[in-house]
Amino acid sequence: MVRGFRSFHPIILLLYYIFAIAGLMLYQHPIFLGLAAATILIINFMLDGGEQLKKWGWMIAIMSVLTLILTPLFNNRGNYILFYFFDRQVMLESVIQGVMIALTLLCIISLFLTFNIVITPDKFVFLFSKFLPQWALLIMLSMRFVPLLRKRLIEIGDVQQVKGLSVKCGPIRSRAKNGMLFLQILLTWSLEESIQTADSMTARGYGIGKRSKYQPFYMKKRDWVSLGFLLATGSFVAFGWWLGDGVLTLLPILEQVLLQGREWFYFILWFVFLAFPIWTEGKEMIKWRYFRHIS
Amino acid sequence: MEILQAHQLSFTYPETTAKALQNINLQVKQGEFVVLCGPSGSGKSTLLRLCKPEIAPHGTLEGRITFQGMPLEELEPMVKAKELGMVFQDPENQIAMDNVMEELIFGMENIGFTTAQMRKKVAEMVNFFGLNYLLDKKTDELSGGQKQLINLASVLLLEPKILLLDEPTSQLDPIAAKEFIHMLQRLNEEFGITIVIVEHRLEELFTIANRVVMLENGAIIHDKTPREMIRKLGTHEKMRNFLPSSSLLYLDFHPDAEPETIPLNVKETRQWLQTESIEQQEEDQTSESEQQPILELREVDYQYTKNSPPVLYNLSLSIYDGEWLAIVGANGTGKTTLLKIIGGILKAQHGTMRFKGKKVKKWDAQKVSYLPQNPKLFFIQDTIKKEYDHLAEHHGIANAEERIQHLLEKFNMKHLQDRHPYDLSGGELQKAALIGTLLVEPAILLIDEPTKGLDPESKKAFGELVSTLVTEGLTVVMVTHDIEFAAAYATRCSMLFQGEITVTEKTRDFFHENTYYTTVMNRVTRNSSVPSVVTLEEARRTWRVQNRS
């Protein structure tokens, strides 16, 4: 979708991710985190139909369950004893703590899955060149070399296999020896070929003066609007944390878990901020679903 | 007006005494299309590189080169980069960037264009070249021909006044090469860009060039129009092989023809042949007795991944003892894949392969050898002699030294045995790799695209060499797009299409039946008043001229 979440300027996207991760770290409250988890899972489904989640789902689940179980076992600070497990008290506070850590982990990992979908390599390089311009060119040149060297190594392996030198079968010693030989020839060969790359770069004026950089992305009106939205909601979220509204106090005395009063305001605000991709992506989905035809 | 001028130019490489170039005087006028040709080592690439100062070879230079009246060394770096455009031989190695868009704007970024200027220029260029569909791709997904077009476009975006090209089509398949040369023709005719090109593939260039300059041993020996050049070179021992076969045919008939009458392309040759009356002498067909195939493939399927379309599907092929089978077909039809399956590099998902009736699970190195498309890959040692010794030791070959020396002698490579493989020329390297493949005395030799990057002379030498090996009993399976080469040397030809071998016939019959996918000579002679032939050699052998009218 041309105008979905992915179409925003990379800086805006980066800002969203920085704020979101900061928010997840700050709002240590099971209900706030539960809401965040639900939102981020929905975002995942909206962006790629849950493809990435399916791939990483097991790992996320195992990690979350492990922290959920292990935290109460190792942490026994608190006032309310729930039960005894092998002569150790299991505290209500530490159970809640476990829930919060598990949810934070789940949220951050699934948020990174969406980061992978949204920040494609070209956007990444763009962001990188914004902050470290002299390194960006080096990175782009090396990015070309990774697949190239891989392809060349496979080619060398194929040809040498028919000659009887292989890294795939035979005793380990000879396999390792052949592997080293292949790498050595890969290096010689690639150095030889890269002289030509250098010539072609020089011929096109590389190194004669200050390079300009092509800017594939520019700030559009909607990017500015979104920037305003993110800054506004983001600062409210930070303010809420400063007031202590999104944080559950565990010690010395456990705060009431259910939300009350002003906390509801920050709860809703937190959702409005975090669901930024849902608003932008959802608008497009609805457009495609219902408004495609002139009736 | 002269745009580029070399005046009394001589050049010596460091630590050598012989001059690589001597007393070169060359004027290139605005809007000209000049071809530099000559045998390997004649100094034509050196001359071209000297015209682009940033990449000029090191050495001592006498005389001077001027660009629009200004000596090259006095030009601003910006002018040198912008106005002298250069495209090199290898499409792959010229590319610096990861994706096509970045590659196209690389030069403009170096010069310091603004984003808005770059967008505008790229838009223009992409529309002119019709490259829209490539713009979002990664550079390593492209074919060789596409890569070379991107390289050309990237240079043209700087708006050069003159375009220097160093064998730009030698690594391309014939169809991509034609497309590339056609593009150069458009640039020259529609925009008046001056073009200086060093090239071996002269057949197509002769019809579009204004001038052909021939170098030999570092000196210009001819500087003529294409037709006059053909007339001159028709008797030159080495350069003869570079000429279009249709022109050579004409010269056979009219050894002292006027240059203006020499036909350059198929159309002109057909018109000329209408005036000739020729009868064909029957060749005695050597009828071959029924043979057992040495290698038999049955119902082979191959897919790279489970979800990709099959590259080979239900392919069956028989290879007989002592033949040279050429498998031809367009790019991406799976020719190399097939060769890799035969060589045991890839494993087919379905089907069987039988060697002399026995099912093959894994090859012994003694039975099959593989000469790769890039013969550099064959070598992993410092010198070619060390490589042979290593191979001999690895396979435990008896009388290894004797055999190596014998092969070196036979291929006339003895003087090169202590060289690093990368220091050899294309033709020498190919021969060196060929010796390596023959050391183990294979029953079957697999050759992948052997003519890539070879000049016509080395091509001919290689073809004749392998031909003698075949008559001595070696079985050769070769994949190629070079149909002229296949027609000249292979004994049988197979066409690969949609993952299957659609037809396998004796070379002559194979090309004889084809209308479009066939040699120049066949296109010249089919359905005409003269007996149709497939190669120039065949015409020389079988045609009997009746009367000349």
UniProtKB/TrEMBL annotation, chain A:
The chain crosses the membrane at residues 12-44, 56-74, 95-119, 125-146, 224-244, 264-282. GO terms for cellular component: plasma membrane. The keyword Iron does not apply. It is found in: Membrane. Coiled coil: none annotated. InterPro entries: ABC/ECF_trnsptr_transmembrane (IPR003339). Its main location: membrane. It is a multi-pass membrane protein. Keywords: Membrane, Transmembrane, Transmembrane helix. This is Energy-coupling factor transport system permease protein. The lineage of its organism: Bacteria, Bacillati, Bacillota, Bacilli, Bacillales.
UniProtKB/TrEMBL annotation, chain B:
It is an enzyme of class 3 (hydrolase). Keywords: ATP-binding, Cell membrane, Hydrolase, Membrane, Nucleotide-binding, Translocase, Transport. One of its GO terms (cellular component) is ATP-binding cassette (ABC) transporter complex. Its EC number is 3.6.3.-. InterPro entries: AAA+_ATPase, ABC_transporter-like_ATP-bd, ABC_transporter-like_CS, ABC_transpr_CbiO/EcfA_su, ECF_ABC_transporter_ATP-bd, P-loop_NTPase. It comes from the Bacteria. Its main location: membrane. SUPFAM superfamilies: P-loop containing nucleoside triphosphate hydrolases (SSF52540). It is a peripheral membrane protein. It is found in: Cell membrane. Residues 4-242, 297-523 form the ABC transporter domain. The keyword Cell inner membrane does not apply. GO terms for molecular function: ATP binding; ATP hydrolysis activity; ATPase-coupled transmembrane transporter activity. Gene3D superfamilies: P-loop containing nucleotide triphosphate hydrolases. PANTHER family: ENERGY-COUPLING FACTOR TRANSPORTER ATP-BINDING PROTEIN ECFA2 (PTHR43553:SF27), HEAVY METAL TRANSPORTER (PTHR43553). Belongs to the ABC transporter superfamily. This is Energy-coupling factor transport system ATP-binding protein. It comes from Salirhabdus euzebyi.
